[in-house]
Design brief:
With about 575 residues, the chain is mostly helical. It contains 22 helices and 2 strands. The chain has one domain: Na+/H+ antiporter like fold. A two-stranded antiparallel ribbon has the order 1-2. The protein is globular. The two termini are about 45 Å apart. About 10% of the residues have low confidence.
Length: about 575
């Protein structure tokens, strides 16, 4: 045990450094390098040192277990995203989020798969390469063709994007539409990529040969997975809300409120995974339902506590993932066999990786603008409200590949005795990891400059057209109150007259109080929320005095010195 103790210790040290440096960068508004890029880079440096110290221990420890990712880390990130989602902006821009997150991802998958198969088939006819798949980029005499099953699974994994870098650089208050589109598309994209991977895996395991109806069967399984997962998430989220409405003793403790909410969400995720459905879509729906209804069934202190807790867990999971990606960077040329407990050297393909990087960029660009062209042909140009500058930002943000892609490709397992298959899978896994690292570090670093350029161009264009009678849409939402569509009116009517009455405790008598709370919470400080919550919880003066002494937070007007306090205050404004 002691010989491996240095590895987890180094990992924890790097994660702590990542969090501290990340918060410091935010406090001084330093965007030259994004915190995720910094986490990967420092992980690479420490990982290289650990590999030099003990290569055998390094190879065993830094092999990402897909089970840990999908059942521990990913649920924390997705649930926090859904629970802290700004629902008004999400619903307002639902058309763009679904178009980019759902349809664009499918198109991206088709383009990537087509180009990958074409390269694998045509490369043997190219004089410059003259092989089917180059390994190491220098040995032109070796070749290793990929099977269609492997290429299909690879194309499904590489569609998963990561918009974290862009989200931290887009001011959500100044540009709420752009922020919600990028955030929503990132969440939906991850879910859709996982569903595509699951649908492909199920079809391959069935053993059926490819027929003319296979694409339609794939689309049917895909839609079935989406719909059933959404319904399960809707049911679990509303059931959890109903439990808090009927079992009021659950609200006596903020700890119970937080743990119960998380366990119910994880139960919904586990149900979908057990049924080979999309736990990500289900978990996202559970978070949205809990945030919309359950918040009114728990205490005010519980609202803040749950949000801060889930956000903190998500931050820890993200920090671990990005640092781990850096650590695993040097582990792609070796294979540790659990049977023989020996370390073997395997091949990677730099030519294949560079080509796939180009395909990733091209497929992202085409998928975004194909969706735009489809919308224009169906609805006309006046209905599409995203400007070309906003679409450019969405397109560039989606070129960054994230941890979901790497975790999906890590689920591919080769037979320990099949050397050819081990090399084939390692080529795909190393390709995905290198693309994730490259796009996160390079594109993530270029992100602030690109976003600032696009915003400046949009503002300059608005300034030139300011004398026009009908100005073009701006990046930030118009202050005028927009008329709701018929669908939005129906949803709002059903929500106010039926759903809130069914799932919110004593809604009839608390309706005015809830409405007033929603208005006041925007100007209320976190300290006031805590004071009100504690005063309602206990009438004992000594207990209240002790709580006041324990919780002494600065008001919004004061300049907080702790990043945690800043985060808590931001969350209190979103309730």
């Amino acid at each position: 045990m002691s010989e491996y103790g240095a590895v987890p210790f180094a990992l924890m040290i790097v994660i702590v450094i990542y969090i501290v440096i990340g918060e410091y960068f935010k406090s001084i508004h330093f965007h030259l390098i994004h915190e995720t890029s910094f986490g990967i880079i420092i992980g690479m440096l420490v990982g290289l040192l650990l590999k030099w110290m003990d290569e055998n221990a390094y190879a065993q420890f830094f092999s990402l277990n897909a089970t840990i990712f999908f059942y521990l880390l990913l649920p924390l990130i997705i649930f926090s995203g859904g629970y802290n989602l700004k629902k008004k902006q999400f619903l307002k821009n639902f058309k763009y989020i679904v178009s980019f997150g759902f349809l664009s991802t499918l198109i991206n998958f088709i383009i990537t798969l087509t180009l990958t198969i074409a390269f694998n088939s045509w490369s043997k006819n190219l004089r410059i390469i003259n092989i089917e798949l180059v390994r190491l980029g220098t040995n032109l005499d070796s070749h290793l063709p990929l099977s269609y099953d492997e290429m299909i699974k690879y194309s499904a994994t590489i569609c998963a994007t990561d918009s974290v870098a862009a989200l931290n650089l887009i001011p959500s208050q100044q540009y709420p539409k752009l922020f919600s589109v990028v955030f929503g598309e990132g969440m939906v994209n991850d879910a859709v990529s996982i569903i595509i991977f699951q649908a492909v895996t199920i079809l391959q395991q069935s053993g059926k040969s490819f027929e003319w109806y296979t694409p339609f069967e794939f689309i049917g399984r895909f839609l079935e997975n989406c719909i059933i997962s959404l319904l399960i998430g809707l049911f679990v989220g509303l059931f959890s809300t109903w439990c808090f409405k009927k079992c009021r003793f659950l609200t006596n403790s903020t700890t119970t409120e937080t743990v119960f909410a998380f366990l119910m969400a994880y139960m919904g995720y586990s149900i979908c995974e057990m049924l080979n459905l999309s736990g990500v879509i289900s978990l996202l729906m559970i978070g949205i339902m809990m945030s919309h209804y359950q918040g009114y069934n728990i205490s005010q202190l519980g609202r803040v506590t749950t949000r801060v807790t889930f956000e903190s867990l998500s931050l820890g999971a993200e920090a671990f993932l990005y640092v781990f990606l850096g650590f695993a960077m040097w582990n792609q040329t070796t294979y540790y066999s659990p049977l023989t407990q020996d370390l073997y050297y395997v091949e990677v393909s730099w030519v294949f990786t560079l080509l796939q990087l180009g395909i990733v960029i091209l497929a992202r660009y085409l998928s975004i603008y194909i969706v735009y062209w489809i919308s224009i042909m169906i609805q006309g140009p006046k209905v599409w409200k995203l400007t070309k500058y906003e679409m450019s930002i969405c397109c560039f943000a989606g070129m960054v590949r994230g941890s979901v892609a790497f975790a999906l490709i890590e689920t591919l397992v080769a037979s320990p005795t099949d050397g050819i298959q081990i090399n084939q899978i390692n080529i795909l896994q190393s390709c995905v990891l290198y693309i994730v690292v490259f796009t996160t570090v390079i594109f993530g670093t270029a992100m602030p400059f690109f976003i600032n350029i696009q915003i400046k161009k949009q503002l300059d264009e608005e300034e030139r057209k300011s004398i026009s009678e009908v100005p073009t849409p701006v990046l930030s939402d118009s202050p005028k109150k927009k008329e709701l569509s018929e669908a939005q009116k129906i949803i709002k009517y059903m929500d106010e007259h039926y759903f809130k009455r069914w799932f919110i405790y004593d809604y009839e008598n608390r309706k005015e109080k809830i409405t007033q709370e929603k208005k006041q919470i925007k100007t209320e400080t976190l300290q006031e929320i805590y004071e009100k919550s504690f005063s309602e919880a206990s009438e004992d003066e000594s207990v209240k005095q002790r709580n006041e002494d324990f919780i002494s937070l600065p008001t919004i007007e004061e300049k907080p010195t702790s990043p945690l306090i800043v985060k808590m205050q931001e969350l209190s404004q979103q309730i």
